[in-house]
């Protein structure tokens, strides 16, 4: 039986990854800064809370990281932790950089220190690319991040590349484009839209206030993106991969799909709120996942319209007291 450590197990990706690894027969350990008080709501929602061992670990503290890895002796480590909101990173740039870049560095240095055959996955981000002028980004596209979050993720990416080349550690980064699910927190725009639309369809009278709906993103389905993470650590040689659907849609298209699923015209319910505009914005994000398809055998099964429909169905079920994830 393999043992996996998931840093950031309480988030969307961490919970789905935990479920996947349990299905594959892994012993799964999740870490949190204080596992004694964390609710691990997503694990409870997926019905796997009791199947996961939980440990307290502060990623910003090297000694804490070293002690935890020494205790668990994992075969695989998945680093999904750190401040996860692009918008919030403009308000909390220091916390964002430290939680992502320093946390990643501490994990890599602990692996090097222990000198054990641990395989390491790092959660990269399409935010590293910045604006690519309409071109689909692949693994050779230069990084030009436009947010503190993107800067932090780019820093962590190069830390991983450095430790792979300098010390021969099996470590890789998955450069994931946007991937959504019902487990997204409501501060993420996709979940915000879905929840508001379902509420309006049920008779609510509120208006949905959004920032720039002209931005375009490559949206996928989170439960299948975590499989790509696992596949990266099963390869003979570590490498970095872009994970995406390969198709880009404007946020307006996503909004329209959500409201249309509910038989509504989005234009009757959406207003622009300039306070939600970001200081700098990526106008179009699109990935080229050819390498992942060719080498990992991974390909997205769901596109944005599918994601919109499944999120609406899950939200409707949730509001009726049924979990559909």
From TrEMBL:
Biological role stated in the UniProt entry: Catalyzes the conversion of GDP-D-mannose to GDP-4-dehydro-6-deoxy-D-mannose.
Keywords: Lyase, NADP
Cofactor(s) this protein cannot do without: NADP(+)
Pfam families for the chain: GDP_Man_Dehyd
An example Gene Ontology biological process: 'de novo' GDP-L-fucose biosynthetic process
Protein family according to the UniProt entry: Belongs to the NAD(P)-dependent epimerase/dehydratase family. GDP-mannose 4,6-dehydratase subfamily.
Lineage: Bacteria, Bacillati, Cyanobacteriota, Cyanophyceae, Oculatellales
Protein name: GDP-mannose 4,6-dehydratase
EC number: 4.2.1.47
